[in-house]
Automatic annotation (TrEMBL):
It comes from Bordetella petrii (strain ATCC BAA-461 / DSM 12804 / CCUG 43448 / CIP 107267 / Se-1111R). Its EC number is 1.5.1.54. Pfam families: MTHFR. GO terms for biological process: methionine biosynthetic process; tetrahydrofolate interconversion. Pathway: Amino-acid biosynthesis; L-methionine biosynthesis via de novo pathway; One-carbon metabolism; tetrahydrofolate interconversion. It comes from the Bacteria. It catalyses: (6S)-5-methyl-5,6,7,8-tetrahydrofolate + NAD(+) = (6R)-5,10-methylene-5,6,7,8-tetrahydrofolate + NADH + H(+). GO terms for molecular function: FAD binding; methylenetetrahydrofolate reductase (NADH) activity. One of its GO terms (cellular component) is cytosol. Keywords: Amino-acid biosynthesis, FAD, Flavoprotein, Methionine biosynthesis, NAD, Oxidoreductase. This is Methylenetetrahydrofolate reductase.
């Protein structure tokens, strides 16, 4: 891999739950537009958000001048539902999607829907809409928690690419070697699309532990120990987080990562502080 000079920056938001949260999101998004993200994305489903919440947030970000991409998951959906959603997004001027399988809410069981995996969703979007959308898919350098093995998970990732994905965003990680190993293994299987590392700022110890347990991202022992030592000292956690995640981003970019995708959690401060730390040469 060789270093690129213009890393593509993208930012992920989630639909706000109330008016106050929406106002905070608008303020955060406006602050972050200063660093000229190539696009922004809006999650769906996570934390109980509805499809309408995603579409409304996408519209709000479009009105701020962003290329905004809704996340679209196929779990629990019928082909007919998905056809309607794709058509509504096209009318709304959406040109980019993050296509996912998604997860059923834990403990609720329920109907998995007509399409089983994200690769089926990508194939469906291509069959229905041709090249109308730029399609991003998820990648897991440390393996998706439900995968049978790293090799099986990689093959399933390759299937999404072969179904028509244009680019990938990874689950977050704190070990750059896991990312480079994944990219090398994907490229050895003929994958040539950009695989953009997903970056989780560190701002809150208990929240990070909770998220990491859910998604299978490993928090290295030394980071866990340092965070535990800071206790309730939020300022020290934030400063440490900017140093650690800033160094990770620099390593990723210096060694050829094509960009960075920030999981902003609707806050501007940490992504901006990290971005300002970077030597973009
Ligand atoms: P898939 O690629 O379908 O993979 C899911 C699992 O199935 C993997 O273990 C894979 O190895 C396995 N698999 C795939 N194909 C096959 C096959 N043919 N046979 C057997 N096994 C197979 N969740 C949300 O709810 N809302 C969001 O907005 C959201 N955004 C996300 C954004 C990013 C960048 C990432 C990395 C994750 C996001 N997630 C979101 C979480 C995601 O929905 C979960 O990780 C979900 O469990 C898997 O989705 P996927 O698209 O990666 O699934």
């Amino acid at each position: 891999m060789t270093a690129t000079s213009t890393p593509a920056l993208s930012l992920e938001f989630f639909p706000p739950r109330d008016i106050a949260a929406q106002e905070r999101l608008v303020r955060a998004a406006k602050q972050m537009l200063a660093i000229q993200p190539r696009y922004v994305s809006v999650t769906f489903g996570a934390g109980g958000s509805t499809r309408a919440g995603t579409a409304d947030t996408v519209r709000m970000l479009q009105n701020l001048g962003c290329d905004a991409a809704p996340h679209l998951s196929c779990i629990g959906a019928t082909r007919e539902n998905l056809r309607d959603i794709l058509s509504a997004y096209r009318e709304q001027g959406v040109r980019r999607l993050v296509a996912l399988r998604g997860d059923l809410p834990s403990g609720m069981g329920g109907d998995a829907g007509e399409l089983r995996y994200a690769a089926d969703l990508v194939a469906f979007i291509r069959a229905e809409t041709g090249d109308a959308f730029h399609i991003e898919v998820a990648a897991y350098p440390e393996m998706h928690p439900q995968a049978a093995s790293p090799a099986a998970d990689l093959n399933h990732f390759v299937a999404k690419v072969n179904a028509g994905a244009d680019a990938a965003i990874t689950q977050y990680f704190f070990n750059a070697d896991a990312y480079f190993d994944f990219v090398d293994r994907a490229q050895a299987k003929g994958v040539s699309i950009p695989i953009v590392p997903g970056i989780m700022p560190i701002t809150n110890h208990s929240q990070l532990v909770r998220f990491s347990e859910m998604c299978g991202a490993e928090i290295p022992r030394w980071i866990r120990l340092r965070l535990a030592e800071f206790g309730d000292d939020k300022a020290s956690i934030r400063a440490f987080g900017v140093d650690v995640v800033g160094a990770l981003c620099q390593t990723l970019l210096d060694n050829g990562a094509p960009g960075l995708h920030f999981y902003t959690l609707n806050h501007a401060e940490a992504p901006l502080a990290i971005w300002r730390e970077l030597d973009l040469g």
